[in-house]
Amino acid sequence: MRRSSSPANGIFATGIAAVALLVLLVGCANEATVAADPEPLVDRPPGFPEQIYPADNQPTPERVALGKRLFYDVRMSANLDVSCATCHDQSKAFTDGLPLSKGTAGRIGARNAPSLANVGYLPVFMREGGVPTLEMQILAPIQEHAEFDMEAPLLAQRLAQDSTLQAMSRLAYGRDLDIWVVTRAIASFERTLVSGRSRADLDQLTDDERRGRNIFLSAGCATCHGGPLYSDNRLACNGLLEKYSDRGRARLTNLPSDEAVFRVPSLRNVGLTAPYLHNGSVSSLREVIDLYNRGGYPHPNKDTSLRPLGLTVLDCASLEAFLRALTDDRFTTNPRFRP
């Protein structure tokens, strides 16, 4: 796919309630009909690069508005009981707080729901890095039995019966609503879910949190969790479990070297995204820190940079305090992300 980079500026569409209003917005140049928003469509915090968008899916207010509507729509699921937002709750940094996520009809999935914060920056998707684009990733929960359990063509037919969605689709993409539109609109909304304005970013840390930041850097945590995303997005084995029932990337490649290999998660908003690891088996942030401090467990694929840290109890407490300072309250309360 040819890709291009361009800033996404403009006025954020706060909502379109009826087809008549949509037609009015298309045909009328009167700016008084659109509520002005002082923020850019896609936030770019200090130190963040520009997002790179597909040439056929540059974010626009109309595309984001349609995507948000679909993100919160339970008609996405076979039994009309769950939406994208069911597993990706804004107040939990777009996770769900469950060890394993629940899909339609209460079916239990195989993994913990990852945060959608800064998902537009990811080079690959799914925990094993098996999907190359955000648009393609959206097809996975749609068709997964334990998530939405829908066939993509049937989902498109269901949603296309909604005249408002049809009007929004034509406004956003110049075509009737189909699965191509559904995946691209949701991706457009998800690319607006940018988090980069925590107290740590604003250098508003307490003395203990500053001490924790120094420990974070000196202990080598930033080797895997550096940069503005607090992740290098590599695929690696952290060795934090004695046994891995989930094969990780080996599910795709069947290579022994890919057993228990997963994408390195971001630490942004990590204080809100418990429980931890791909299977939600670690309940608290302090427990994660303690596991790393002990060096985890032996595994043939364990990343060679991981070793016992030798931190004291006070060190671990300060490190936890710093990690909690990565919580971005602006992100978790921003009304632009609500239905």
Nutshell version of this structure?
The chain is mainly α and 339 residues long. 32% of the residues lie in helices and 2% in strands. It starts with a strand and ends in a 6-residue tail after the last helix.
Explain this structure to me?
There is one protein chain. The strands form 2 sheets. The protein has a two-stranded antiparallel ribbon. A two-stranded antiparallel sheet has the order 3-4. The model is unreliable at 1-34 (pLDDT under 50). It folds into 2 domains: 3-194, Cytochrome c-like domain (Cytochrome Bc1 Complex, Chain D, domain 2, Orthogonal Bundle), CATH 1.10.760.10; 207-330, Orthogonal Bundle (Cytochrome Bc1 Complex, Chain D, domain 2). It has helices at 19-27, 61-71, 84-87, 134-137, 139-143, 152-160, 163-173, 179-190, 207-218, 250-253, 285-294, 313-324, 329-333, and strands at residues 3-4, 53-54, 235-236, 262-263. The longest helix is centred in the middle third of the chain and has 12 residues, at 179-190. It has 13 helices and 4 strands. The protein is mainly alpha-helical and 339 residues long.
